[in-house]
Design goal:
This protein has 88 residues and is an alpha+beta fold. It has a four-stranded mixed β-sheet, covered by helices on one side. It has a single domain, classed as Ribosomal Protein S8, Chain: A, domain 1 (2-Layer Sandwich). Helix content is 32%, strand content 23%. It is built from two helices and four strands.
Length: 88
């Protein structure tokens, strides 16, 4: 019997959330992505005041499943999204 891989979204929308709720959702999304074998996920935090973007960046800096991250490029959400590269 073949193993069934968990499904994971390639992006996680955090817009409009308070920091603690956004980080909990982002952490779950990262866990799901790693279990599903994804190498990259996009966290959408919006542009707004930039506070959520900063909180997300601080969170990602110390996360053991994160190999690196960058702001989104053209077609990826620009400054309103962070593209996360996951450890293998």
């Amino acid at each position: 019997m073949a193993a069934v891989l968990p499904q994971a979204a390639v992006e996680c929308d955090l817009r409009g959330m308070r920091a603690d709720a956004a980080l909990a959702r982002a952490d779950k999304a990262l866990d799901d992505a790693v279990l599903a074998g994804l190498t990259e996920i996009r966290l959408i935090h919006g542009k707004g005041t930039g506070v959520l973007r900063q909180v997300v960046a601080e969170f990602l800096r110390g996360h053991p499943q994160v190999a690196g991250f960058r702001l989104g490029g053209t077609g990826e959400g620009g400054d309103g999204a962070t593209v996360v590269t996951l450890r293998a």
